[in-house]
């Protein structure tokens, strides 16, 4: 097995050497439209370092077998690697192996939670009744919004939203009013994929727990960028996606407090999650297996373990410091360019953020702006980034988002700024 | 001409800045029947509402409203112009739309004939940008739908 | 991109050269317990040839980006590859691209169907009412049984089962009685993962369509082994898993007739499957996107396309002929060994099958038999293979299953037979 | 001795063929309270029902029934023998079970002491076969559960 030791022991204070780390990512050597690739779309999907590519391939070339169901040597070795991967990924967010359920991604994890709650028997503490309230926020990704809309429809529960201030921060005063005795579930994102703002999740969790509501956190945009200790945070359930944290497609994690997972009925059913099956009924295993029907993404899970070892090898504190530095450089440059409007407060240091900014180019549609940047090798995302209500809130249908990761450099940011300066002149506005 | 300039021809930027036949015509006014179609690009939220008024077998006029990128706006404007200039029949319009779709999906292999497509021929360059084909198609899909309803 | 041309043009009649093909599968060169690996567990998961490993890696090293949502070059190229993969995999089963929904695997595909039907509005032609009947069979994998048990529970529908004869074939006379005017869904496997028997699915589909019932076919164990033309077969819905057909983990397909997919409401919700979203409601895209919430398994889908190109390059007729030859060699050898009981009719040529047999070793538990084989490098599966009711039907709790693929040779079968002869003597029975 | 023989010691095959204390003792008979546990290995369907009768703090006897592989059957038989021979207290049993679990999960690093574990020490070899650890543990998990209930 290839092991991930991207840098020799560095303290949390040492800046990371992104130029050196780029060598671990083969795709970053690509040329796009005659320019070097400037990849600023990591919030959509991150790129994968060699230790991740190698771990998965190594497994497939030497050990691959279906897990948990066989006595043969490969099956036993594959099972060990798969369960070690579970422990590793759980450990990455401060959790124990039994608290980590494999999913195919964050969307799947959130649907699992919503459907499982929707299927809870009337006597269960999780069951929703008409009039019960589910609270989410005005800044969510559709993955943490539509499953709750559907759950509300199915159960007669009412869906409410914590509003956001103009600066992009959540309105905690309003949250304190909205979260009340009828609130049964509070679902919120740790970091917005459009604003990059790190939300005050401790406060929200405290408000929810005061009224006995279940907390569900979308950690997609925090897991690759911030140190996480989910048990310490006290959140009940949290999800993340492998492909956004240097890992493979097709795998993600659902973290749950033991009592909560224990109380949740199964969602997907099939092989490997049962104890006894007759033609007419089945009995189910305890968590995490209860939620893992059918063949799991074995190779991707092993790849994800390599990814979190890679991230841990560098250190999340250092990664966060590096990306914050990039975001600040980006902000400082963008606010100087005429006609650029940042989504969220453009003044410095007002809130904690990860390394991304979304912006509107006055008079130029986001698609056109993105196309212009692409002609210079700069990959950004354009559109509503699966957060349409948030864009509506800011009076736009689409924006340009530039998002960084540990492999981005100040040069990448400068290339972006230089190109953004050319957008409005090119389109004659 | 580099690829970006081939995409954003002067003509395209002109149309997107000065959209033609913008503003929906009154549905109940003469002549004939009218059909209206609303189309949306779910990725970016761009949308268009297009109305075709049909007099017998002839398309009398096309008007539209919408918002979106320069490609989608220019394409709608050019299409409305084309209909106004050529006085197309339903059948001719369907053929034109089919040809437009084929050229745009050709990944740069087919060029639109200026004789036939007028200003819209400038959209040929879009076919090399597969992510933008939907933008250019939006109005044409709307016309297809609107005629069917008229 | 590496292209798969494993053999030069061969006619359907030419036997395949499995010894040569083995070179495409790096893992088959492994040594296990001092013996060469004899991999007879492909029904659990197949091994992957180099063109599949290379296609996925090549994508991740040169083109990786999130699809469908960006104007930048990598995103556009990735989208093209991803949609080409859809067309390729759809074509492999005779279908059009719009008829193929990506899933994370067959279990997920079957759950998608069952949950979608369960969520159909009362006015929908798909909606189930108390007293409606769902028919499945006595030989199903749990993945094609438990989702229907749960759907029956949720809707008040009644679950019925087509029984099997002692020889493992389905009782078609009973099927004709069971499938009647109350039948709304008939779910059945094309090939049993325990018996290897190819079921008379045309007859079952005809019975179902006579009464207007929806047909759902589990094609997990046929897709890698038989030529399939699902539209010609007339089945309404069918599922398969990538990892069982030389492709990656984490991806599978749901095929559906256009009208059926169109009538099905969404199941998982989130990004990329919507047209309009406000804080309170969402509208959904047409199929297949309607069923593809969140980031899809992009790399795995591209890998699966390489896998089906590899299979097609060899030719499914030839693969089937090769595997049938191996199965017959296995059968002929096993029936000669004292104390070996095959599950299903052990006489030759009675029914069509794929290349697998399950068996019971008199006086030796399947786990112990499997362990003995493993000591000689032979990888088989032991247990109930996620088909507990079928094992109950045969009065055993577990069996040994040896399953072949295109890369197995007569030598592999002989090694198995030789080792099986030693099992009972070793355990002193 | 090759690895397979280290797994299937003579003693193990003996116990599996001639299981000791097989057949559940009457629950209501003397002495003391009894606790019964049913355990199952979902992979292969192996199952065991084990009954422990407890007299004060002492485990009076362990009887069992079940079906499964030779490892799971031998392990149950050896465990019942051990209890019969040693006259263990609840606390001692809990410690023994803990030690057994640890050795079996050690991937071949720990050996069970014959002085302490009797015939069951022959199960040390199982720890190198991670897929079989569950089989060997089945009866011991059942005893843990049964004592707790007694
Ligand atoms: C017949 C059959 N159906 C369904 C499945 C489930 O497939 P998966 O585990 O890939 O979801 C399998 C494999 O385990 C199978 O053999
Ligand atoms: C904040 C947030 N939540 C959820 C998701 C959904 O993740 P996935 O598409 O991997 O399921 C994303 C990414 O698209 C995201 O940014």
Automatic annotation (TrEMBL), chains A, C:
<feature type="domain" description="Aminotransferase class V">
    <location>
        <begin position="38"/>
        <end position="416"/>
    </location>
</feature>
<dbReference type="InterPro" id="IPR020578">
    <property type="entry name" value="Aminotrans_V_PyrdxlP_BS"/>
</dbReference>
<dbReference type="Pfam" id="PF00266">
    <property type="entry name" value="Aminotran_5"/>
</dbReference>
<dbReference type="InterPro" id="IPR015424">
    <property type="entry name" value="PyrdxlP-dep_Trfase"/>
</dbReference>
<protein>
    <recommendedName>
        <fullName>Cysteine desulfurase</fullName>
        <ecNumber>2.8.1.7</ecNumber>
    </recommendedName>
</protein>
<dbReference type="InterPro" id="IPR015422">
    <property type="entry name" value="PyrdxlP-dep_Trfase_small"/>
</dbReference>
<comment type="function">
    <text>Catalyzes the removal of elemental sulfur and selenium atoms from L-cysteine, L-cystine, L-selenocysteine, and L-selenocystine to produce L-alanine.</text>
</comment>
<dbReference type="InterPro" id="IPR015421">
    <property type="entry name" value="PyrdxlP-dep_Trfase_major"/>
</dbReference>
<dbReference type="InterPro" id="IPR000192">
    <property type="entry name" value="Aminotrans_V_dom"/>
</dbReference>
<keyword id="KW-0663">Pyridoxal phosphate</keyword>
<comment type="similarity">
    <text>Belongs to the class-V pyridoxal-phosphate-dependent aminotransferase family. Csd subfamily.</text>
</comment>
<keyword id="KW-0808">Transferase</keyword>
<dbReference type="InterPro" id="IPR010970">
    <property type="entry name" value="Cys_dSase_SufS"/>
</dbReference>
UniProtKB/TrEMBL annotation, chains B, D:
<feature type="domain" description="NIF system FeS cluster assembly NifU N-terminal">
    <location>
        <begin position="8"/>
        <end position="135"/>
    </location>
</feature>
<protein>
    <submittedName>
        <fullName>SUF system NifU family Fe-S cluster assembly protein</fullName>
    </submittedName>
</protein>
<dbReference type="Pfam" id="PF01592">
    <property type="entry name" value="NifU_N"/>
</dbReference>
<feature type="region of interest" description="Disordered">
    <location>
        <begin position="21"/>
        <end position="42"/>
    </location>
</feature>
<dbReference type="InterPro" id="IPR002871">
    <property type="entry name" value="NIF_FeS_clus_asmbl_NifU_N"/>
</dbReference>
